[in-house]
Design brief:
single chain, mainly beta, four-stranded antiparallel β-sheet, 1 helix, about 65% strand
Length: about 80
């Protein structure tokens, strides 16, 4: 008997805005992404393992950073 289980992360784009990147300094689109991590059994996600996290990704350099609360309210 085989038991297939694991943890899977999934990203969802929440929104985007035009802003200045803190890493590269360029004015480019900033994408807000929500990442959830869930436990899965037989490739079916069952329940979250940790709370959802939010990231801001720069479209110019591709770097990501944690989103501040002000950015979450604005999106």
């Amino acid at each position: 008997m085989f038991l297939i289980f694991g943890i899977r992360g999934k990203d969802k784009i929440v929104g985007s805005r035009l802003g200045r990147c803190e890493v590269c300094g360029a004015t480019a689109a900033q994408t807000l992404v929500r990442r959830t991590t869930k436990f899965s059994l037989f490739f079916v996600p069952l329940f979250p393992v940790r709370a959802a996290r939010h990231f801001v990704i720069c479209t110019n350099c591709g770097r990501s950073r944690a989103a501040a609360r002000e950015e979450l309210v604005a999106a």
